[in-house]
Amino acid sequence: MNEPLALLVVITELRIFLPDLYRVIRRLLRVGARIGIAELLQTQQAGQRPDN
Question: pTM (2 decimals)?
């Protein structure tokens, strides 16, 4: 008898929290990409500069 109620709770939680979780994951991926690109640019610039 509790199984349909538990299923309803899980579906409701997914409906409420899944969009927020999706946004957080996208934001983390975007920030990670920015950090990765910044590191790549710094590495390329450091390789182009002659060291004395």
Answer: 0.58
